[in-house]
Write a structure and sequence with these properties.
It comes from Araneus ventricosus (Orbweaver spider). This is Mos1 transposase HTH domain-containing protein. The chain is mainly alpha-helical and about 130 residues long. It has six helices and two strands. It folds into two domains: about 50 residues; about 60 residues, Arc Repressor Mutant, subunit A (Orthogonal Bundle), CATH 1.10.10. A hairpin with a 2-residue loop joins β1 and β2. α1 crosses α3. The longest helix is centred in the first third of the chain and has 13 residues.
Length: about 130
Amino acid sequence: MGKSEFREVIKHFYLKGLIPKEFKGELDEVHGTSDPAFATVYNWVNEFKRGRTSTNDEDRSGRPAEVTSSEMIDKIHDMILSDRRIKVLEIVEARGIFQGTVFSILHEKLGVKKSRQHGCRVCSQWRTKAIV
């Protein structure tokens, strides 16, 4: 049984006038360990008391999860081709994405890493892993 279905059952018991303690035991008997925790049941009953009618998740605020789209990969690839000495933070600032996402694109998607020329850190360039 999915989250939304459990919420429908919780809503049903709430509309019947039962309190969470009265129907949590029944949920445990029927569904065993797959049923929601008491705190979850209690929270949903409170949501219904406040007038909520939907059992679906509401949209969450905040920054959405980033997707490493092929468009973003191409843009970063073009950036390192035009300037092999570009820094990760410069890419982060130019593209407006997280540093971890840039690392993921560079290392996992593009297969590049920084290599030092003549042991000089300032002279390091992005190269494919096969060349390094």
